[in-house]
Amino acid sequence: MILLPLAHILTPLENILRDVLKWLGPHGTIGLTWAWSIVALTVIVRLLLVPLTVRQIHSMQNLQRHAPEMKEIQRKYKQDKKRQQEELMKFYRENNINPAASCLPLLAQLPVFFALYFVLKDFSKHPPPGSLSWLHIVPSIADKANAHWSGYLLLAIYAGSQIASTFFMSATMDKAQRTLLLVMPLFFIFIIARFPVGLVLYWVTTNLWTVGQGLITRRLVPKAPPPPPKRSSRTPPKGGEADGNGAKAAPEQPKPAPPAQKAPPRRVKRKKRKARR
Q1: pLDDT-based confidence at 224, cuts 50/70/90?
Q2: Helix or strand run (H / E) with residue 181
């Protein structure tokens, strides 16, 4: 019932995906099986999302480059969460950082995901010509994933690929958020199990694409610089740094060596002459 209004909104995208699958399918120009057509469709979608992926990579680079300063802001305003968020947003604006850019490829794929769901749902009611099996293991890509043992195997691959892709794309997140994202796929299995096998196949393919992208990104993204050493109140300011009143402190001049003290004159003990008898 909830998906009915969404189906009307996604009807144009659903028609596009159906035409692309027919073009890739057994009786189309390419001549792939329906399962491999979904894999090829996933690759096409990810290629179209390359501009968003580039923005995602640049966002990760900025986040890693400025990670020490952001951690310092979080530490400084640890007791005042509201002030902490305000200072972080100000820091994002000053350094042209967009934390939401890392989620753009995922958000752009959600309409494709739901539209493909409706396409496969129509496949189950009106099977197209050609085999709907995949690698002679999955009976039909339009069946639910929990309808056959091979579907559970695909769900296990989905969970592993989802955890791996989350591991690569959440490197700059907080430890608690990252742990939550790594655990969430295990709970999603119970929901994904009721989806068509072809939809799980689509998501597994896009996860494997993300893992490969993460491996390349790790080589391209420079390591974050080490945080500056903490200074105590006794640490003297360096030359050119401002003091507490805003004025630049003069560089510390080396102290002159103390003058060498003259050694005291050496006293010579004279031998007493013996008295004559």
Answers
A1: very low
A2: helix 175-192
